[in-house]
């Protein structure tokens, strides 16, 4: 019969230092430790990865040791689901400190069952009150005109400059490096300004007076680029309607075991396809390479046009 230590804290800003202090004797004795870091108490204990591992490895007669009851359960529903499992497996549950330290919370007697249910109801009420106080505090802060959350990474002037650079042909990642922020910050600034929106019709001309004979393309001359097959597969489901139409009208080119799609379209569409396949930049090595190759092609065209302009 062994002692098994269980630790849990709710957010990644919290630590288990207080719990470890309460369980010092067990930890010093080498008791195995099972953890669920940054795990909300709203997730039932039987659904947590760390506690599930503990149950799988525990033997009949073992005792689960916790610093306080709220580390394992904080609702009546949780303890009602948990107790039968512990009883059926022949496990014991003990809180290491406080008024409950001498009681086996997994004991199958009516008195313990009633006490544990009352305790769980109190803990659930406490959790709900914390949530209610947090919501009221947020509402009061908003009413007072306070800005909530993290400070903005870029101010309005810098956001305007980013939008202007993007419209001149700069890529998102290049802008991120230049302004020393994450690419998602650049995308948020562009989306807030509507800079990444694509028109429904790629070849639709700008509005002209009825007397005008010359129609100027809205998105500049067409550019022919080969889009790697991995990106094409992704964009057929994740791309917007304009990008999917361009893929459908493109020319498929087979290369060994892979393929690419040759697309002739305004450079703005190629930039849109690159942005909409950005998720592959953080995928496996092959997908990252495909995204990098296409990004290099788009950037080369942009650089050439900027040099000629």
Structural account:
The protein has helices at 17-22, 24-28, 49-57, 76-89, 110-143, 156-167, 172-179, 183-192, 229-238, 241-249, 267-276, 285-308, and strands at 3-8, 33-36, 63-66, 92-95, 222-228, 251-255, 258-266. The protein is α/β, with parallel strands linked by helices. Mean pLDDT is 82; it is low at 198-218. The protein is elongated. Helix 4 (76-89) packs antiparallel against helix 5 and helix 11 (267-276) runs antiparallel to helix 12 (285-308). The N and C termini lie far apart (79 Å). It is 49% helix and 13% strand.
β-strand number: 7
How far apart lie the N and C ends?
A: 79 Å
- Low-pLDDT runs of 5+ residues are 198-218
Molecular shape:
elongated
List the helices and strands and how they pair.
Elements (H helix, E strand, L loop, with lengths): L2 E6 L8 H6 L1 H5 L4 E4 L12 H9 L5 E4 L9 H14 L2 E4 L14 H34 L12 H12 L4 H8 L3 H10 L29 E7 H10 L2 H9 L1 E5 L2 E9 H10 L8 H24 L1
Parallel strand pairs: 1-2, 1-3, 3-4
Antiparallel strand pairs: 5-7, 6-7
Helix pairs in contact: 4-5, 7-8, 11-12
Main attributes?
single chain; 309 residues; alpha/beta; 4-stranded parallel β-sheet; 3-stranded antiparallel β-sheet; 12 helices; 7 strands; elongated
Summarize the structure.
With 309 residues, this protein is an alpha/beta fold.
């Amino acid at each position: 019969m062994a002692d098994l230590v269980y630790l849990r804290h709710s957010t990644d800003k919290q630590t288990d230092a207080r719990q470890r202090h309460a369980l010092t004797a067990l930890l010093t004795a080498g008791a195995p430790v099972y953890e669920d870091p940054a795990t909300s108490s709203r997730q039932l204990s039987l659904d947590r990865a760390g506690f599930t591992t503990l149950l799988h490895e525990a033997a009949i007669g073992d005792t689960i040791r916790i610093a306080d009851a709220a580390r394992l359960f904080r609702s009546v529903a949780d303890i009602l689901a948990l107790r039968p499992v512990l009883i059926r497996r022949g496990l014991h549950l003990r809180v290491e400190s406080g008024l409950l330290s001498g009681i086996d919370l997994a004991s199958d007697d009516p008195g313990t069952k009633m006490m544990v249910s009352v305790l769980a109801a109190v803990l659930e009420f406490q959790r709900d009150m914390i949530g209610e106080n947090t919501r009221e505090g947020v509402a009061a802060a908003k009413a007072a005109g306070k800005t909530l959350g993290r400070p903005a990474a870029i101010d309005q002037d810098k956001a305007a400059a980013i939008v202007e650079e993007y419209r001149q042909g700069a890529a998102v990642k290049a802008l991120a490096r230049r302004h020393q922020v994450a690419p998602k910050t650049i995308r948020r600034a562009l989306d807030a300004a509507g800079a990444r929106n694509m028109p429904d019709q790629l070849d639709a001309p700008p509005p002209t007076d009825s007397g005008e004979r010359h129609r100027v393309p809205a998105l500049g001359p067409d550019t022919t680029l080969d889009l790697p097959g991995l990106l094409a597969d992704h964009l057929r489901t994740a791309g917007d309607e304009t990008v999917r139409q361009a893929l459908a009208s493109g020319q498929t080119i087979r290369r060994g075991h892979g393929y690419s799609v040759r697309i002739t379209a305004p450079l703005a569409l190629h930039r849109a396809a690159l942005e909409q396949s950005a998720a592959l930049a953080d995928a496996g090595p092959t997908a990252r390479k495909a995204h990098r190759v296409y990004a290099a092609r788009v950037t080369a065209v942009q650089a050439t046009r900027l040099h000629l302009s």
